[in-house]
């Protein structure tokens, strides 16, 4: 009987090992597919503005009859736009890869969130859009983190809210603390909102609900992927809620720093 039990266990063990092997293989295939997809998407995103730049420059150089000064000016403007888009894309790709590479070491600096949020929001808005910012900074929490990354997180969320929100309406930037000892930042716009089916995918790289609109407004499709990584590095959480026709709210919660004045 003991031998039967042993045989049974051995069989069970073999089965378990086979299942583990299968899971590992599937996980590896998933990672490898995600990597290939990412490289393909990134190459496509880089190629499109490059092709457009080359096309306009060739037309300017070889156009017969030569372009009028007005056309020249217009083409140069488009070339500059496309070059800026490339620059944005390369800088977002570099941010993403840097944050991913560092994901195992927790950033440790003590960061005062209130001034950081004010500054990053103003930077994101630029002079023209600053009047739309509605600050409701009702707390003065500190967290432990990487100030450069936290600034980028705020810039990305505020830029999106201004870009996709109703240009005639304000964007609210609210800072508070929660009973769970977290700093809570909510960025609220009053735009068209986001359809429910898109919500779970928004933080995927290059995912856009309206690619034409995103590109036209200088979007790279990487902003929210970067936000998600930064939030995770700070042991935090990102929640997105939206009402179609009313607007969207992006909420970030990050644990308070232990010696925070909010925490005593
Ligand atoms: P993008 O560079 O395209 O803005 P993001 O990663 O920042 O890339 O956002 C991904 C997509 O999520 C956007 O293309 C847009 O469709 C949607 N999105 C992000 N923020 C908002 C918002 N505040 N309101 C509506 N849609 C949004």
From TrEMBL:
The answer to whether the entry has keyword Repressor is no
Top-level taxon: Bacteria
Transmembrane found in the keyword field: yes
Coiled coil start-end: none
Please state every residue range assigned to the domain named Histidine kinase.
Answer: 41-258
Record's keyword terms, sorted: ATP-binding, Kinase, Membrane, Nucleotide-binding, Phosphoprotein, Transferase, Transmembrane, Transmembrane helix, Two-component regulatory system
Q: What is its EC number?
A: 2.7.13.3
List, in alphabetical order, the Gene Ontology terms for molecular function in this entry: ATP binding
Task: Describe the reaction catalysed, as an equation.
Answer: ATP + protein L-histidine = ADP + protein N-phospho-L-histidine
Query: What protein name is recorded for this chain?
Result: histidine kinase
Q: Which organism is it from?
A: Parerythrobacter lacustris
Task: Please indicate which part of the intact protein appears here, giving the first and last residue numbers and the full length.
Answer: 134 to 397 of 397
């Amino acid at each position: 009987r003991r031998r039967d039990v042993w045989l049974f266990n051995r069989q069970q063990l073999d089965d378990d090992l086979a299942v583990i092997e299968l899971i590992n293989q599937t996980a590896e295939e998933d990672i490898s597919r995600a990597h290939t997809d990412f490289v393909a998407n990134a190459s496509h995103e880089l190629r499109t503005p490059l092709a457009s730049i080359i096309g306009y420059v060739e037309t300017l150089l070889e156009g017969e009859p030569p372009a009028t000064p007005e056309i020249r000016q217009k083409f140069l403007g488009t070339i500059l736009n496309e070059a800026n888009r490339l620059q944005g894309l390369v800088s977002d790709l570099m941010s993403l890869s840097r944050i991913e590479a560092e994901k195992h070491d927790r950033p440790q600096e003590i960061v005062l969130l209130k001034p950081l949020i004010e500054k990053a929001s103003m930077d994101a808005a630029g002079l023209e859009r600053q009047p739309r910012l509605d600050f409701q900074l009702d707390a003065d929490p500190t967290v432990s983190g990487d100030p450069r990354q936290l600034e980028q997180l705020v810039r990305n969320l505020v830029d999106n809210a201004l870009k996709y929100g109703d240009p005639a309406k304000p964007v609210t930037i609210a800072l508070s603390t929660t009973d769970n000892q977290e700093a809570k930042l909510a960025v609220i716009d009053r735009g068209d909102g986001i359809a429910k089916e898109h919500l779970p995918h928004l933080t995927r790289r290059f995912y856009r609900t309206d690619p034409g609109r995103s590109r036209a407004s200088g979007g790279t499709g990487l902003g929210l992927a970067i936000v998600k990584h930064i939030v995770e590095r700070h042991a935090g959480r990102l929640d997105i809620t939206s009402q179609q026709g009313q607007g969207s709210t992006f909420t970030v919660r990050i644990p308070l720093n232990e010696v925070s004045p909010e925490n005593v």
